[in-house]
Amino acid sequence: MNTDSAPGTQHAKRPDASAGTxxxxxxxxxxxxxxxxxxxxxxxxxxxxxxxxxxxxxxPNGAGKTTTLSMATGLMxxxxxxxxxxxxxxWSDPVAAKRLLGVLPDxxxxxxxxxGAQLLEYIGRLHSLDRELAQQRAAELLDVLDLADAGDTxxxxxxxxxxxxxxxxxxxxxxxxxxxxxxxxxxxxxVSAATIRSILRSFxxxxxxxxVSSHVMAxxxxxxxxxxxxxxxxxxxxxxxxxxxxxxxxxxxFVSLVGxxxxxxxxxxxxxxxxx
Length: 276
Known about the structure:
By secondary structure, the protein is an alpha/beta fold. The chain folds into two domains: about 25-100 and about 175-260, Rossmann fold (3-Layer(aba) Sandwich); about 110-170, no CATH class. About 30% of the residues lie in helices and about 20% in strands. It has helices at about 65-70, 95-100, 115-125, 130-145, 160-170, 190-205, 215-225, 240-245, 250-260; strands at about 25-35, 40-50, 55-60, 80-85, 90, 100-105, 180, 210-215, 225-230, 235-240. The strands form two sheets. Strands 6-7-8-3-9-10 form a six-stranded mixed sheet, sandwiched between helices. Strand 4 and strand 5 (about 90) form a beta hairpin. Helix 3 (about 115-125) packs across helix 4. The longest helix is centred in the last third of the chain and has 16 residues, at about 190-205. It is a peripheral membrane protein. This is ATP-binding cassette domain-containing protein.
């Protein structure tokens, strides 16, 4: 038995090819479980992300989105279950799986005493790019993401939005086949957000797979062609965007599945009083 495998993963079945494709799903999550003390964050979650899709993962706060993405990309060990990246088991074949991934996690810790250019070159070298190619790609990414003027600035001095963009550049520099991005537009200004959307659309249009988590339903509807709604660490609905949202909006479908919406009624009447 491989002692490096998470409990319950050694007998996980390798995923079959996605419907209509010649290969396995980009991401296949099988029976993922994660507990924190007495709290079950993810409860036996199963999910397939089709290759070439722009996939949105939505859910309320505490739904298990970040924990799910962390386990799917090998950043957090599950208590049970496993994840496959284009057929490679993240836990029994981590090098092959992670080579295919570009990851922008929540609360990303960067080597922030490097400049932006140094950080990107370093990440590129970690992914086995030669120095010249790493420097070339770093310069291109800094330019496209409007960070060229900050290339010689220490990352610790970046704003929150700039830090998010340099984190995305780190996820892209090795040319991954799958991007998993946790709240990629948080703290990003509208102009930069438009640039990021253009990059991600181009990536998906050319055969890459993008997985984003977000609280903003309108953004998911604008960008994604597939979506999964999760709550309580389980998938409530998953599939093509039009199939999941039905005849209404994604937000309507989300609220109907997740529940918890409260009518104001007579509450907070003091806020509705006219001044004077």
